[in-house]
Amino acid sequence: MISDSTPRSAPAAPAEDIDLACYNATYVERLLQKYLDDRNAVPENWRAFFDREAEENGVSAAELGSRPPSFQPRSIFGESGGSAGPASSGGGTVGNVKLQKVQYASDQLVNGYRTRGHYNAKLDPLKIKNKKQTNLSLEAFGLSRSDLDQQVYYSSGEKIEQIILEDLIKRLDDLYCKHIGYQFTHIDEIEVQQWLIDRIEHQSHIKELPNSVQRQILQRLTEATVFEEFVRKKYVGAKTFSLFGSEMLIAMLDLLIDRAASHHVREVVLGMPHRGRLNVLTNIIGQPARELFAQFNDVDFHQFIGGGDVKYHLGNSVDKMTTSGNEVHLSLCFNPSHLEFINPVALGRLRAKQDRTGDVQRRRGMAVLIHGDAAFIGEGVVQETLNLSQLEGYKVGGTVHIIVNNQIGFTTSYDDSRSTRYCTDIARMLQIPVFHVNGDDPEAVADVVSMAMDFRETFQRDVIIDLVCYRRLGHNEADEPSFTQPMMYKAIDKQMPIRDSYLNRLVEQGRISSEEANAMSDEYQEFLKKEYDIAQEMKERSLRRPEGVWEEFAGGLEPTNEDPQHDPADECPETRIPIDRSAEILRMLATVPEDFHRNRKLTRIADQRCEMADGHRSLDWAAAEALAFATLSMEGHRIRLSGQDSQRGTFNQRHSVLHDINDGHEHSIFTSLSQKQAPVEIVNSPLSEAGVLGFDYGYSLDYPNALVAWEAQFGDFSNAAQVIIDQFMASAEDKWRRLSGLVLMLPHGYEGQGPEHSSARLERFLWLAAEDNIQVAIPTTPAQYFHILRRQMKRTWKKPLILFTPKSLLRHPAAVSTLEELANNKFERIIHDTRENPEQTSRVIMCSGKVYYDLAHYRDEHQRNDVAIIRVEQPYPLKNHTVQAVLDQYQDGVPLYWVQEEPDNMGVWPYWKLRYGHRMFERFPLSVIARETSSSPATGSKAAHEYEQQQLLERAFNT
Fold it and tell me: What confidence score (pLDDT) does residue 68 get?
C-alpha cells in the first residue's frame, strides 16, 4: 500500500483563518455555490468577500454563479497582483508577487496530477509499455528547484493545509503515479469528483491491509495458480484458455463479492469471456472440480451428440457464504465465443431478478462484467451496453466492469487494435471513474476494489477497473505466442508469478511464513487430486434440470406435436376472454384521468375503442394487442415490451403512453386496471438492436412468468442483432439447457417501402428452426395475434416466439376481428379456406401473411371460386398431420402453389421446398409463385413494386 507522506509543516488551520485559502480555485467555487444557495451558509469573512466581489465586478450576487467554471475573481488573481482574501476583508495586498505565483503554480500542479497523473503511473507488470508519459516536471508549471522549500496551501476539498512544496510533490507522486492510475476529471459533477479526491487523497492510501485480508488474497492466488498448473498437467494440450498471468482476477472477484455483501447485495450476476472461466467456475462460483474433470474426460459423450457446448462457455449458479458471513447468490452466465455479447444479457438477467423480487431501488443485486482489453474497445455492443446504464428502462444500480488487460488480443498488440491510449477510453462516455491498476500489486488491487465498490454503492453508477496484467501462455494452449510477440514473451519468461512475488512480500513483512504458504498450496493440490480421482470413476455427468422460478416450465419437443393422436386441448392453455370482460377492459383502456388533456386525435382513437366495446366497430390490431397485455396483467403476469419508439408505435398505432398536451406529463393506458394487476412496462429503447435485444433476452431468462417482448422498428433491423438470435435464442436450449419465452415482434410485409423496410428475413429464422427450438408465426388477424400472445404466456412449454407483425394490415379494412373471436376461438396454426364445395377446387394456394389479403381480394374481384386459399399462420413448429388434415378435403392431383411476396430464395418457400419436395404427401404437385431470385429483398421503386405485385397475383390465378 502507498502511505501518505507527513508534511514538514504546522497542522492545517481552519479554512476561514488562512489568508491564502482563496488561491485554491476548487475551494472558492464550492464556497461560492454555498453562498449562492444561502448567503448565510458561508463564514462571515467569505460572505463579505463575495459581496465585495459582486460589487467590484459590477454584477449582482446571483450573476456570480453564471460565470464559467474557470472564473477567477479579479480581487484574487487580478492584474494588480491580487488583493486580500476574505481573512483581510479590508482589501490590503497579500504577500509578495513570487509567493502568489508559486501558490498559483502549485494549484496547477495539483490539478495536473489529478488530471494526468495516471499517464505516469507504473501500471505494466512487464515494464515494457512504450507509451509517452505526461510532463509533470517543475518547469511545466513555471516552478524551479529553488521553490521546493516554499510553503504552499494544498486543498483536497474543504480541508486546506500548509505543506512544503517538495513534500507536496512527493505526496502527489505517491498518490497518482505508482501502481494505480485514476481517471475521473472527465466527470462533470463537482461533488462526484470531490468524493473521489477525498477517497484518493485522504483514505485509501493511509491504511495497511489487515493480515486476515492479506492471507485471503494469498489463499485465492494460491488456488488460482495451483488450479491452472493442475489442469495443464493432467490434460496436456487441452484448450483451457488459461488465466496464467492474470491470476489476480480470482482474488479480485473474491474481495469484490465480499465488499458487495457488506453493501447488502444478495444477488450477483457475472458475465465473462472464456479466458479464466474454468478457474472462476471452480474457485469463485464453487462448481465441484469433479464436474469439470468429468467434462474433460467426456465420460458420457453420447448424450451430447449434436448438442452441448465446450466447457469454457458454460455457466453455473450457487449460493455462497462470504467471509463476512453474508450469503450471496452468484450466477455466471453461459457465453458463446462472441465475447462481449453476454454484457446486455447479464444486465437483463439482473434487472429481471430485481423486478421479480421488488428491488425497485436496485440495491440488492449487482452485475459484474469481465472483459478482455481488445474486445472491450473493439466490440460495438460494449458501447450499446454502456449507453443503457442510466436509462430508466434498463438501470440495474451500477455495473462493475473488470477489464482483464493482457495487453494483447489473439496475436495483435494494442497498437494495432485501438486508436486510443487506453482500452477503457470508450467508458469515458459515462460520468464514471476508470481505475487502472497494476495486476502484480495485490494490495493496490484491493484498494481499487474497495474504492470502486463504494463509488458504485454511493452513486449507483457503473465503474471501470482496468486490471493490467499479461498472458503467460498463448491465446490457447496450442499457440506459440513468441511467433508474433517475441519481446513481450521474453519479458514474460523472466516475470515472477504473482503468487510467488506476493508471498515473498508477505514473508519479508513477517505476515506469513513460507511453511504456512506451502501448506496452503499442498492442501489445495490434495483437494484437486481427490476431485480428479472421483471424476475418473464417474460414468455420467449430472445434467441440471429447470429449477427455482423455472421449475414448473419445460422445453424439449412441443407436447402437441409429439404424438399425432394426442389431444391438443390437453396442452393448449385457455386464452379466451368473455365478451363482456373484453368490452369492460376496452372502455378502461380508453379512459384517462380527469385532469389529463389528451390530443384530440387520440380522443378519436379512444372513442373508437368504446365503439368496439359496444360492438359497433370491428377490433383492430392495436386494440387486440392492448387487450392481450391488459388481460395478462390483470391475471398477474408482468408485461415488458421494449423497442425503438414502442410506446407510440412505429406506425402510430399503439399509443400505450399518452402525453398531456398542456404540460407533457405522461399517462400509461395500462395503469389502474385493477388493484392486483402486474406492471405493464412499455419502454422506448435507445437506437440499438444487439444491446437491447440482448438485455430483453437476459430478462426473459430470469422472469418466466412475464411476457417479455422486443420490437424491431422494422423487421429487417433485427439483422443488427443476429448474434443474439443465432448464438443465444435459437441454440441456448441445445447448448446450455436454458429456456426462454422471449417474443420478437418483427414488422414484415411488401408495401413498396424499399429493400430495407419490406422483409424481416423470415427465411433466416426457418433455417435456424430445428428440434422445436423456436416458434415462427405470421398471424393475419387481430384475434390470432391476441390468442398467440396469451398462449405464449399461458403455456408451461417455453420457447422463443418469432412473431412477424403487420404494417399496412394495422389499418386494413379486412384485417379485423370481433370480440366473439376473442371469446370463442384459439390460435390456429393453419386457417382453412371457408368456401363451399371444396371438391370443385381446381388449384390450392398456400401462403402466409399480408399477401393473403391481396390474393383474397383478387379472387373475389375475378370471381375465382375454384381457387382455395389456405393461410399458414405458424410455419414452425408445424407437424405433417396438421397440414394433412387441412388438405384432406381436396382431391388427389390438384396443383398446390406456395405463393409469397418475397423472392423465391427468401421467405417460407426455401424451407417449404426442402421439407415437402415437389409433391406434398405424394398427393399434390407443389410449386412456387414468387418474385424472381434476388440478392436484395425488394425493389426501391413504388411503381416497380406495384407492377411486380400485380404480376404475382395474375400468376397465382394463372390469368
Answer: 41
